[in-house]
Specification:
single chain, alpha/beta, TIM Barrel, six-stranded parallel beta sheet, three-stranded parallel beta sheet, about 40% helix, binds zinc ion
Length: about 300
């Protein structure tokens, strides 16, 4: 029976129900050298973010996937307390975000196995002295050809996924890079269904997005509510016509409390997908069955182990 790991423990996959598969509660963009818990007041963060989570709970959202990685203010204690206060299931992640200035020095001097062992340890024992375990692996790449560090981090993710069955979500944005990542995963015999093409909606060539879908990966259209919805609708309808309905994830990359900004800065609601975007899909004749698959079934499959 498949399960999902949340910050408040394991659940059955079908308990995820209505899910936002790529959002953020808290992010600190200052970089690996300066970030840390001293940079924010966790009580203030919780107080600011609680109403945003209550809003989506009241819109029937059951599960919230928090995609903030290590060294960008992944704070599992905050996530757990907010999960308890709202009754939402929240997922957090392990892994290293492979873009500067977020890559720690030790990642350059470690090999993929050493990095994977650190992440597998988080999976087995919990994150930072807690018993909170990651529900997926988060990595990131830039555009263009693989750099050594990017490839190493993808290899470490592959090793971790093979060992734990956790799904890998990679900030990728571009189809060419997605195909390169899938080649590395293939070398490690990681099933493409264990990989999420994050920010796929940034890719301008739909045929490249389709090629990635053809390989079996998850296509994350996670920029909803950022002024690009017509484009996202076009990508979505194209992928649906091509029968990729069982590989698509919809989310907003919304939130969040921005560390260093007054009261967390300009926070975007998590409710837009439910209140504005899904009704648009209905208007365009997309069936209830497909909408249910996109928002319930697919996230549960994508994050199941
Ligand atoms: Zn994100």
């Amino acid at each position: 029976m498949s399960k999902v790991i949340t910050v408040t423990g394991e659940i059955k996959s079908e308990e995820m129900e209505l899910t936002l598969p790529h959002e953020h509660i808290l992010v600190d963009f200052i970089g690996v050298d300066k970030t840390g818990k001293h940079r924010y007041d966790s009580e203030a963060v919780k107080k600011v973010m609680l109403p945003y989570l209550l809003e989506i709970r009241d819109l029937d959202v059951k599960t919230f996937v928090d995609c903030t990685p290590m060294y960008l203010a992944r704070d599992v204690n905050i996530l757990r307390e907010l999960a308890k206060q709202t009754g939402l299931y929240i997922l957090t992640n392990t892994g290293i975000y492979g873009r500067e200035p977020y890559i720690p020095q030790y990642a350059y001097s470690s090999n993929p196995d050493e990095l994977a062992n650190q992440w597998i340890k988080e999976f087995n024992e919990g994150i930072e002295e807690t018993n909170i375990r990651p529900g997926f692996i988060k990595t990131a790449v830039e555009a263009g050809k693989f750099t050594d560090i990017e490839k190493k981090l993808i290899e470490a993710a592959a090793i971790t996924s093979k060992e734990t069955d956790l799904t890998i979500a990679t900030h990728t944005c571009f189809g060419e890079k997605a195909l390169q990542i899938l080649d590395v995963l293939k070398d490690y015999e990681v099933d493409p269904q264990k990989w999420i093409f994050v920010h796929a909606n940034i890719e301008e060539k739909i045929e490249l997005i389709s090629q990635v879908a053809e390989r079996g990966a998850w296509i994350s259209l996670d920029g909803i509510g950022q002024g690009q919805d017509d484009n996202i609708l076009m990508i979505l309808e194209t992928l649906l016509e091509q029968d990729f309905h069982s590989q698509i994830l919809l989310s907003q990359d919304a939130g969040c409390y921005f560390v260093g900004e007054e009261n967390g800065g300009d926070i975007r609601s998590f409710g837009f997908l439910l209140t504005d975007f899904l009704p648009k899909l209905q208007e365009r004749g997309i069936s209830e069955e497909i909408i249910h698959e996109l928002t319930y079934t697919n996230p549960a499959k994508a994050y199941s182990i």
